[in-house]
TrEMBL record:
The species this protein was found in: Luteimonas galliterrae
Keywords, comma-separated and alphabetical: Cell membrane, Lipoprotein, Membrane, Palmitate, Signal
Entries under InterPro entries matching the protein: Entericidin
Protein name: Entericidin A/B family lipoprotein
Signal peptide: 1-19
Record-stated family: Belongs to the EcnA/EcnB lipoprotein family.
Taxonomy of the source species: Bacteria, Pseudomonadati, Pseudomonadota, Gammaproteobacteria, Lysobacterales
Length: 51
């Protein structure tokens, strides 16, 4: 019985970890898209580039 409980807890922990990875990956993609938009806006305004 103890082994079954331990396996269930391990499975729940694993699923939680995997879903968190997907969430973080999605957030990273959102930040990347926002950065691309900022970069495009800077290009349109003719900002100076670093030498």
């Amino acid at each position: 019985m103890k082994r079954l409980i331990a396996l269930m807890l391990l499975a729940m922990f694993s699923l939680g970890t995997l879903s968190a990875c997907n969430t973080v990956k999605g957030a990273g993609q959102d930040v990347q898209k926002a950065g691309e938009k900022v970069e495009e806006a800077a290009d349109k305004t003719g900002g100076t580039e670093n030498p």
